[in-house]
Every structure is written in structure tokens, then in C-alpha cells.
Amino acid sequence: MPPLKRILSQARIRRRVRELAAQLRADYGEQRPVLVGCLKGAFVFLADLVRQVGVPLQVDFIMVSSYGMGTTSKGEITVLKDVTTDLTGRHVVFVDDIIDSGLTLQRVREHLLSRGPASVRVCALLARERVLAEGAAIDYLGFPVPEGFVVGYGIDYAEDYRQLPDIYVLEGEG
Ligand code: PRP
Fold this sequence. Notes:
Blueprint: E1 4-8, H1 10-28, E2 34-39, H2 43-53, E3 58-66, E4 77-81, E5 91-99, H3 103-113, E6 119-128, H4 129-133, E7 140-145, E8 150-151, E9 167-170
Parallel strand pairs: 2-3, 2-5, 5-6, 6-7
Antiparallel strand pairs: 1-9, 3-4, 8-9
This protein binds 1-O-pyrophosphono-5-O-phosphono-alpha-D-ribofuranose.
């Protein structure tokens, strides 16, 4: 296993999640938004977030696989598990653990918008500084992160490390 360097402690994550939850509470009030978590990585973040929001909300999940830009499928995604909630007229918040290239965000947003919601906003725990500099529309952001393989708090490397309470970068990778 490559060595891990801790970049975000669980205490720091907890504080930031509480702040994001307070923003959601202020913005949505009693509108009962649908928080759509992106499997698998967002499961820890979403679980912590929803318990801090403190207003009525609904939870659903989506699971996609992406092929990446520049491959045969030119940046398309496949929906492996779709939301089951009727999103017509609903306020939707897409919740993801990390926005890396931005492809998943872009395609899932299009997918969710095609369901006729009243609004779609994005809540990401982490986003690459590069993607933020390109102007990615992330309404609620936990932390910007530099390049490097990030693991922990739901995020994996070859399906390992999701269970770690802190967030690390794998040294000597990526
Ligand atoms: C990760 C992450 C995002 C996506 C971001 O998921 O959870 O959903 O990649 O990458 P992008 O911005 O380049 O599209 P992954 O495909 O690793 O699946 P997982 O959540 O099951 O680990």
C-alpha cells in the first residue's frame, strides 16, 4: 500500500459539513429538496450532511460510470442506477464527493434537468482547483483540492480506503 498523507482531518470536515448544511437550511427552508447522492463515493458525505441540515428533505441516489474525455465515447456517462423519485417540479441538490474532471457533474446535471425539476444545484465536498478555475458551477463547496489521488471519507483507490474518517492523498500516485 502506498503511504498516505492526511490533508483534511475529520474535525475539519465535520465543521465544514455543518457550514454547508446551514447554507442548505437557509436556502431551502421548508421546500423539501431532494438530495441526490452519487454512488458510491458520496455515501459518507451525504450521510453526514443530511443529519445536519435540520429541515425536511428527501434522499435519493444515482450511480454512473464515466468513460472520460478523449476516449471512444467522448465524455459520455452511463447511468447504472437512476433516481427513483419523481423530480418534476422539485428542488434537486446533486451531492458528490469530488469533482475531478467535471464530466460527471456536467452529464448528471443534464440528466437531472431532463426530469423537469424546479431547480438543480450542486453540493460537492471537494473539487479540483483546476476545475474551479475553469468556472465549474458548484453551489455548495467543501474544499478545493490540488491534484493528487485523494482517498478516505467515502473516496476510494481501487475500492480501498472509503472507510477512513479523514481525507488523504496517496503519496507517489497520480
Ligand atoms: C468519482 C467521484 C465523482 C467522479 C468525479 O466517482 O465520486 O462521482 O468520480 O469525476 P469526474 O469529475 O472526472 O467525472 P468514481 O467514478 O470514482 O466512482 P465511485 O464514486 O464509485 O468511487
